């Protein structure tokens, strides 16, 4: 499954991304909605 993590806290964004990858997901991460709207 492909997951988009949008979180302004860099440390939390990193940890969420790592956990999702460890669960086998493809992860894209963005700092805010503007960055996520690609």
UniProtKB/TrEMBL annotation:
GO terms for biological process: phosphorelay signal transduction system. Residues 2-38 form the Response regulatory domain. It comes from Serratia marcescens. PROSITE patterns: RESPONSE_REGULATORY. This is Two-component system response regulator PhoP. It comes from the Bacteria. Coiled coil: none annotated. Gene3D superfamilies: 3.40.50.2300.
């Amino acid at each position: 499954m492909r997951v988009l993590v949008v979180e302004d806290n860099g440390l939390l964004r990193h940890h969420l991304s790592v956990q999702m990858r460890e669960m086998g997901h493809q992860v894209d991460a963005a700092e805010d909605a503007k960055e996520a709207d690609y």
